[in-house]
């Protein structure tokens, strides 16, 4: 008899154990397909992870139940991706079913009934010559035309060209035959992209290119560390060209949806239709079709954000992770996987290389390159002999002394004016969206907070309302203080929206664009903003960190950072590293084709992260930061994980974590800290406590975390989440 091993999707029964079921007569089942099986007294969905061809009844303790139904005609996951799911479970202390669901694209996950439909289109598949006589002039012309086309030809197109009645006559006479054929929704129109011409490499690029070629021979993982504007993209694009020429495929990951328009332009502009694009803004239908294009082997290169690492390619020759240091590569929720680890695993499976590319590599990656775990490939100069941008650090305390109370320092204003006069472009970074950060009463100090979260509300001018950035809550702006009824209730602090307005007041004729979460909530809005700025239809681009990295606008000669300290003041051991990366990256947007300047406004001008960023000194920063990490025992000197407990009552969340703390505190291999409230202790009326774990022995700790997960996932009041 034939049996299958199934991982069942039962929330209250999360184990990594598979269950055996009997395959019935006539059922076609393969590993990687989904099935319906009986579980308890219910019918549940599950994944087939194994098949036993000639199992014996005696092998099983109980009589096996049958597979009710097979849900897929083809496997939705390859063997490789199933193995990857197992690895993901180990790395994140999570459950197999969650890992499988993470890897499977959302489009395939939706239930049977609303499953994404295959899109079809009426196509002319045959043309029969001689049926139509020349005297039926129009019809004859249509047939002549079709005889000169490659079939199948779109019937809709034909109707547009020759009118619907003509096509109808042709069909009635039997001069043409049409058929409904499947079409794949495309996510870009390759004909609108100009060719992205291959550039002869500069000497420095060539050295890097050759080093990478050698590294690829032995399937090594590499760090491509090149200063901003050094042309890293060209180097790895030419590597990909070689990979594709050898018949293999490549994955290129970008950190932000904001960067996909530029990447798609470059890749489609060079490789045309061989490129698939996967990111979070695709519709289910689009994602479904991209996934199937890849599965059918019609795609050579997949470009996308984080989850594109799970693209079902079968013969990968290279994986590139661009802006390797970006925090978006780490998934926040469980399974809290690290895309870089997933990439290394897949590369290992395919015996190919991963290239981690960045101007500001994460400390972990750089440290690995230092001890030769990754091959180090450096490019230390910009394209075309351009200088790195000059960076000026402005001490905002001095502006205050000089009675300048505006958001802009005098130097920045002068520089903006100068660039506007010269018709050069400007990028301004302000890492906070909205209009005003909070509303406060001048008399009693009351700050308007979200009723559901422990966070102040942000005023948005477009809606003229206060918004919570953590839940959906909105409320009107109060006219008097809700606490003391004083009318002196005022907006304080600033965001991108307020900044844009102040800027417009200073420079009434400037064309200003804003890119942040509020202006990019619609599909295609990134592309629209990107195109407008690229086509020189705007002078100033204002935005949050989403504009800080990777973008390549040749006409930008000035970058301003309005509040450099925001990142630095964040209570996280990576705060300095993040600030250094952000400042280096955003400064790097300036002067990519001609000399440029960056102006950084700060209240902490002497902070080492700011100083090293101003000098473009990665090495210097690395050494300083490593000293501090060593002193305080932080990564890369150890691993850290965090445990979060969330519940409707603060006490319950705390009690659970405290119990765990008690369990762990005697483990000599793990250093655990007492539970503390999360940075924002209450979101949507749910309280979160967290505790930090530090350890060297990853295997041991992961095993213990996995046990924790097994023990507490059924807890009906507190949800526990583990981030490794
Ligand atoms: N060999 C070359 N000759 C001429 N121009 C080049 C060459 N290589 C790259 N460029 C151009 O140089 C510019 C910068 O390249 P690119 O955007 O790849 O930089 P990068 O190293 O990725 O920088 P960042 O880390 O800031 O994103 C681009 O406009 C690119 O087209
Ligand atoms: Zn008040
Ligand atoms: Zn809220």
Automatic annotation (TrEMBL):
Belongs to the helicase family. PriA subfamily. Residues 476-629 form the Helicase C-terminal domain. Pfam families: DEAD, Helicase_C, PriA_3primeBD, PriA_C, Zn_ribbon_PriA. Zn(2+) 1 binds at residues 441, 444, 481, 484. It catalyses: Couples ATP hydrolysis with the unwinding of duplex DNA by translocating in the 3'-5' direction; ATP + H2O = ADP + phosphate + H(+). Keywords: ATP-binding, DNA replication, DNA-binding, Helicase, Hydrolase, Isomerase, Metal-binding, Nucleotide-binding, Primosome, Zinc. This is Replication restart protein PriA. Component of the replication restart primosome. Transmembrane segments: none annotated. Initiates the restart of stalled replication forks, which reloads the replicative helicase on sites other than the origin of replication. Recognizes and binds to abandoned replication forks and remodels them to uncover a helicase loading site. Promotes assembly of the primosome at these replication forks. Its cofactor is Zn(2+). Residues 213-379 form the Helicase ATP-binding domain. One of its GO terms (molecular function) is 3'-5' DNA helicase activity. Its EC number is 5.6.2.4.
